[in-house]
Amino acid sequence: xxxxxxxxxxxxxxxxxxxxxxxxxxxxxxxxxxxxxxxxxxxxxxxxxxxxxxxxxxxxxxxxxxxxxxxxxxxxxxxxxxxxxxxxxxxxxxxxxxxxxxxxxxxxxxxxxxxxxxxxxxxxxxxxxxxxxxxxxxxxxxxxxxxxxxxxxxxxxxxxxxxxxxxxxxxxxxxxxxxxxxxxxxxxxxxxxxxxxxxxxxxxxxxxxxxxxxxxxxxxxxxxxxxxxxxxxxxxxxxxxxxxxxxxxxxxxxxxxxxxxxxxxxxxxxxxxxxxxxxxxxxxxxxxxxxxxxxxxxxxxxxxxxxxxxxxxxxxxxxxxxxxxxxxxxxxxxxxxxxxxxxxxxxxxxxxxxxxxxxxxxxxxxxxxxxxxxxxxxxxxx
Length: 382
Ligand SMILES: C[S@@+](CC[C@H](N)C(=O)[O-])C[C@H]1O[C@@H](n2cnc3c(N)ncnc32)[C@H](O)[C@@H]1O
Hints:
Number of strands: 15
Distance between the termini: 48 Å
Bound molecules: S-adenosylmethionine
Oligomer: single chain
Number of domains: 2
Shape: elongated
CATH topology of the largest domain: Rossmann fold
Strand content: 15-25%
Number of helices: 10
CATH superfamily of the largest domain: Vaccinia Virus protein VP39
CATH architecture of the largest domain: 3-Layer(aba) Sandwich
Radius of gyration: 23 Å
Largest sheet: 8 strands, mixed
Helix content: 25-40%
Strand order of the largest sheet: 2-3-1-4-8-7-5-6
Structural class: alpha/beta
């Protein structure tokens, strides 16, 4: 089968590297995600093991769809009885570009009609639509009049790991935090430090990765059989369920007992308490404290700082804070400092001429945090 692991824009290389490390086959980065191939079980494994992907989609069919009839016919040519019956629910999401059909609601509606009509013919009854929590979530992408139809294996966005019951303002998605850890080159050995931790997403993702705790192990263990979307599909039989049990057991056996120190601090005592609670739910040890970034001290051995300061539309930072951050970060000799910045203010402050030795040019990557284009600036402090 052909699979597509979807990415926050700019994080495709992180998912590509992750898929390669996890020994998936046919890995090829593309705009918005990474392709890979394999039997259906590889799709299950991807949902279970990938930290950086938002969704894992299984391609069910691809055909020309220059008009609504061709779309209806093409979708109807896919065997939906494998996934759905009248007792299950579905939802369809559509996206299109450079095509004759332009209304995504209409494309979704037509796709849904083709699916339910086929099932009505087969069973004499049709499944119903559940937009909030469908058993089968279908995506249809129309690009230059060619439709590709996918089933979403996870069923919901994979960033919902289950550990973050509460978040502060402007939390990062867990999948993005995991991608930033990779893109900033954390070696999982140096101490990890997030001095503006909010709900602790970066620190917790880092601790999970360092201890090799697969994301699939995090969901409520007592409800494991309903964990991913594909576990609610009609074709999820005993053999597939057994495969999932084996996957869980193998993943548990690979968990490391300890990881490097992880420090999460924030000026706001309320969010520090959230971070502490979230780490507990995730089952990882992180050192949480209420502290200002202005008071951050170097660690021994030198650490890896990854920080998502307040910026732009969601939180107002201010030049004074950026100057203070730059002053502190420039003193962290031997550390790597990676900043997800939604404003040039921090980059300017880091580049300022100060009495300290100059900071070399950062490695700068464009990464999207939701609708906001940010830069991931990575500095090796001399
Ligand atoms: C964008 S949020 C971080 C969100 C976090 N990455 C998450 O996923 O939850 C920025 C954080 O910086 C904190 N902050 C603002 N000024 C600070 C300062 N001077 N020192 C430390 N933390 C500060 C805020 O309390 C807020 O939690």
